[in-house]
Structures
1.
Amino acid sequence: MTGWVGFDLDGTLAEYDVGGPYMGPRSVGRPIKPVVDVVRSILAKGGRVKILTARVSSGGEDAATARKTIEAWCVENIGEVLPITSEKDYRMIELWDDRAVQVLPNEGLPIQDVLVDALKLLVETLDSGNLPSGLRYNIESFIDGCRDRNLTVKKVV
Ligand SMILES: [Mg+2]
């Protein structure tokens, strides 16, 4: 792997109170285990990972403090210091981010909308009353999540 995988910090790798006050450069939330596990898996396979965060974008005093705080968080929660940047480059092959909306390349269609359309088709094809409860829950949760992100979706189940 010659490229690197970017991971946002706040709300992706570490818990963050969305909509809450910024807690300052000396505070990083608790690790979000499923994402930390992805990072560890990539590293274990020899892949390259970077933390991509606006916290280090200003280049000012707060950015330096934030960088040190994040480095310490990395040691504690990942076992090593990861490179930290605020910039994408052409070697970034993937980005994990809680604010990103993924689109189909060259189509301009949000993936969430494509999935909702696929779920509508699934529900229309099957008798929704006979959907296994776990599948129904997952579909409803996904659609609710899309709605929470102010995407235009309709509840289909
Ligand atoms: Mg974030």
2.
Amino acid sequence: MKLTFYGVCGSSPSTTKDFPNIKHTACVAVETDDCFIIFDAGSGIINLGKDLTDVAKPILLFFSHFHYDHIIGLPYFSPLYDSNHNITIIYPDIKKIKSILPKIFDSDFFPISYSQLPKEIPVKTPDYCSNFNVSVTSYNLNHPGGCYGYRLNHRNNSLIYATDNQLDSKHITPFITSFKDCDVLIHDCYFFNESQENLKTWGHTFLPDLVSFCFKANIHHLIPFHFKPDISKEYLSNMITYLDSHISKNKSSLRYTFPYDDLTIHL
Ligand SMILES: [Zn+2]
Ligand SMILES: [Zn+2]
């Protein structure tokens, strides 16, 4: 599996001047021999669309949920307008996604309606991916309005995409069972250690909760994801110091990678 990040921010495209390559909102691509899997259509999917020149390879486009930072790039995803591409949209609740997709292309927001796309895009549940040698499990995440996480298993590798999830001491137990022993965990890390109480109801995770979760669930490789759009060098460097000291203190073998736009990892 080849994993490429096209957008790693939450809420809005980045406003930071510190990192020119942390710019776009959520979009992650996983390429196998048989298909392109895409998680979310944040602004990062616009650049991904330009890279998808191989029309012979099917595209499986997953949505976690429909907050703007996960859908805003969809109308600008160029393969939608090329009928040579073979795109399938994947979501566990078919009725819900069929009602939402036309709304994203509503004439109040965009000049081309969903029904005007050159070909109808089929919508399937995650089990459809077994046709491409990928088994997928979906999870209900802890986020206002709901959100789905997905675990991919392909050739002895496992990868979980769990953006927009609040992991804290009250909610950690079921996720330890379901995410256990995962090779690569891409997980919401919107906060570091901010003290404001109201942030604890936003449906996002603080780094200390995420790190202690990874130790408990025996995660091999953590990729913190869905950063605050104003992330600064100092903030990131403090997060790295925190991770290094806690991994060392716990004598853990946990690896981590902070992602950025265009980062590719081979699994
Ligand atoms: Zn989000
Ligand atoms: Zn959200």
